[in-house]
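Tutorial, part two.
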Amino acid sequence: MNGNILDTKWSTEDNKVVVTRSQDVQAILDHAKEKQIGGHNRKSDMRHVMSIPFVIAELWMKECGANLGSHEFAAYAKKKLMSGEYSKLMVHGY
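Running the prediction step on this input gives:
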């Protein structure tokens, strides 16, 4: 499994459907680390700030109640990344 594939498993527990999502994120972490080491072009108006695995994005959307791509989600993701807990997802920072 690479960092772009989600694994979804369905089961039942106490008459409820339980969905478990997982993702091997090592390729995403390796890519972010390579980009950190390589630096970035400061002449550009845009830069690669972070790489967020799908399973983390799904979790954050649920936590903040916002959709991926919305301003609310971007602000929440920035807050999570700046907390230090998810620093390995950072590429060039804010």
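The longest helix spans residues 26-38. In part three we will examine how such features are distributed along the chain.
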